[in-house]
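Fold this sequence, please.
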Amino acid sequence: MAASEVLGIVKKTLLLLPGPVPVAQPVLEAMAWPMINHRGPEFAELQGRLERDMRPIFGTEGDVVFLGCSGTGGLEAAVASTFSPGDHLLSCPVGVFGKRLATIATSFGCTVETVETPLGSSLDPQALAARLEADTERRIAGVLFTHNETSTGVQNDMSAYVPALKKHGAISIVDSVSGLGASHFAMDSWGYDVVVTASQKALAVPPGVAMVAVSERGWSAMERARGARFYFDLLKAREFSRNGQTPWTPPISVFYALAVSLSRYHSAGMEAQFARHAGYAQAIRAAFETLGFTIFSAPDAHSVTVVAATPPAGVQAGAFLTRLREEYGVVLSGGQGELAGKIVRMGTMGDVSAGDILGAVGSIECALADIGAPVEFGSGVAAAASELRASTTVTA
């Protein structure tokens, strides 16, 4: 049966979402490789290679384990494995996904306190430091962070929170599902304990695998934790990983795809990957602003993997996104939660070229004109092109 019959899709689209993202053909083709014994030597070699390739992306020399799930599964594993019911945690959300991490912790019986941050802003290091300094009895067992928040287009400077965190000593969990691989992360030197990412974001692989790196402090905390867990047990994942296995049947085809994608990633070079994402994000922001959008994230808090923006006056976000998708085949995201219907979000991740960015901006101009917004054709494309030419991304 043809894909169009199964999915009802006949028109090619360009996904510029916060995830999942466009996947390169060689990565997709790897998923057609034959199955292997997930308890055999071939799989052990595959998983070992994946761990070696992931360590520099996390910025760690420690253990990296692989789970057959989405990023949310990885975050649940981190919370369930690290903390016990009744533990007092400090949540530092900067959007929907940070709040989801807090909800996971609450679901496992933890008491969660929140450091509030205005939407569009990054976490204030001084606010975090003040709360941790006030915790003289060290009741706060852990701190929950978001590296990159796709719902608001905000990225936290994770190095800024290190002094306060080290001084206090709380165990840290970092959601870097949409951040890792697109910008620098130094887990070991910064001292973060549990960091979670997933396949379907900057690493440009189909969904299905979460990767979790854990420090020695993190493993020690997990050995003390008494929370209920079974499938999402990171200690069990480490135990099996040391024998080249996973506790449960892994998504072997996604592992294949991840291996090919990581090979391509490292061949291009990490710094080139960072520059490409940052260049694309700057080009999109320039185009949006030229076309009358207002960038939602604060100037010192821009994400490199997703740009969130408020449409021009008189432009309804839903109508614009629908026209852009149905007429031009360019798929962006709308807002979530309290931002639903108020913003649009455009991603930079995946198998996306500079030409794709320029083509998408041209389509945005057309869609705006179609729904009656005043547009100077070519102005957004010119703004994006100027930024791309000023960066190294034009040859990406």
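The longest strand covers residues 140-146. The domain at 3-19+269-395 is CATH 3.90.1150.10 (Aspartate Aminotransferase, domain 1).
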